[in-house]
């Protein structure tokens, strides 16, 4: 098949540091190429990809030092470039939320739109009712809850291409607890600090601080970093994640929002590291409780899970990652979905695909 993958322009593909959607797009694009498809990636310049790159902006928006820029204009320019070439592709796979709907109505039947964010926002319901001809893919079943009426065709969990560590084993010194991602109220780094203090283990925080969250960091989190055993590392990239996650007894994911997926959870699993996560959003779908981690409802539950994490079967955790969350398994799910969309009369079973 000839497939166009359309990425957001905010981050590099894949991101050099923090970034979820563009990382998934990068891994999906490469995996589809390895499966033998002709894939063209529409993204910002500098993307590292096995596919044919169409550079739609001179650099990712986040890396552009010019403070005067328009993300809307950048994405509209990309969609114009795609529209001029739309007949070259069998499938157009969008990862750009819903901005493309008015421009691609004539070819909606051969499009896939994967929604990567939260959907409990005002105005979304009316929009997804209006453009029901676009096939939507969720990244978890929970993500669908605010829009049960939307044109859902499948749930395809995220996948990543991450090599296993040379040795998959628990840290000999008992390890530390890890927090990876972004400093923001919904990610609850304050809760992670409280859990680590109760458990009596060090906590290493590798996280990005967005400008929008700077006040929260300065007033709520930075004072907590002065406590013994709490280390703030800052934002890290893929090159540093294996050592950071593999050396941890567990990853803490104490979120307080309707998480659509939670890519960091499978990043930990890829290194054989168990995850201790709050019962929110997609968490119960991603974590196999008692196998790849523990789904908890309180700080005390989390502390008990930390004790169990010391004896987790890390090889088994990696095996679950390979089966459920590898880039290849994700690409094969999408491949099946593309084929069914292109031959709808041959469809004999539902399109729902979960991990």
TrEMBL record:
Keywords, alphabetical: Transferase
CDD domains hit by this protein: GT4_AviGT4-like
An example Gene Ontology molecular-function term: glycosyltransferase activity
One Pfam match: Glyco_transf_4
Domain Glycosyl transferase family: 171-311
Residues in Glycosyltransferase subfamily 4-like N-terminal domain copies: 18-133
InterPro entries associated with the record: Glyco_trans_1, Glyco_trans_4-like_N
Name of the protein: Glycosyl transferase
